[in-house]
Amino acid sequence: ALTQTQSNGSLYMTNSAIRGLTSATTHGATLNGATGARLRLVDSEIEGCGRGGSISVQTGLGMSATGFGATEFDNVLFATNGLGGMRQETGSALYLKDTRFKLLNSRFAGNWAYGEYSNGQVFRFEGDCDGSVVSNCAFVGNYECKAGAAGGIISVSFDSDARKLAFENCTFAYNIVRRWNSGSCTDATALNV
Questions:
Q1: Which of 12, 63, 107, 127 has its C-alpha lying 20 to 30 A from 6's C-alpha?
Q2: Do residues 129 and 159 touch, judged by C-beta distance below 8 A?
Q3: What is the pLDDT of residues 62-86, one digit of tens each?
Q4: Residues with Cβ < 8 Å from 161, sequence gap 6 or more?
Q5: How far apart are alpha carbons 11 and 155 in whole angstroms?
Q6: pTM of the prediction?
Q7: Beta bridge partners of 66
């Protein structure tokens, strides 16, 4: 697993792969930046990171990044990352918090989450992500099962109503959201984003 503690140092990764991490405590990448730090991931894959279990809170098993001044993902595949059986799953493939980001030409395929309170199983962002852009991306064949009202493939939780995010020329296809009911998934619904 790749870990960066909070620092002003920038991280650039090109033609890289993070695959198959299934540890109870390890994410594919857990990165904590600061206002002056930059994160850039290009022509790379984050695939097969995930696990089941009964942990209370788990975020971004594929990649979790917080606090960077700017973050860019270009031509990145997030595939078959998953979370299961936990009480609070958020962003099985990618979790971003308090960082302005550009997500470009990337694909999210076959990612999954199920649990009592899962939120935004593929991609979750929260806090101050104002001015971020998701462009020319595909979200295909992802799956979520959660309690209560149907969830969604993408989850947003801004820290202010004034925050904005743009989706441009993206494809959403064959994503499934189901309801968690007494320990199992029932009631298939149409795509919720």
A1: 107
A2: no
A3: 888 889 999 999 999 999 888 766 5
A4: none
A5: 25
A6: 0.85
A7: 32, 97
- CB 9, CB 36: distance < 8 Å: no
- Specify whether the CB–CB gap between 33 and 67 falls below 8 A: yes
**Any idea what DSSP says for residue 21?**
-
DSSP 191: -
Nearest to 3, CA basis, from 54, 90, 66: 66
β partners of residue 158: 127
Query: Which amino acid, one-letter code, is at 157?
Result: S
- Residue closest to 67 by CA, chosen among 33, 114, 21: 33
Full DSSP string of 22-49 = --SS--SEEEE--TT-EEEEEEEEEES-
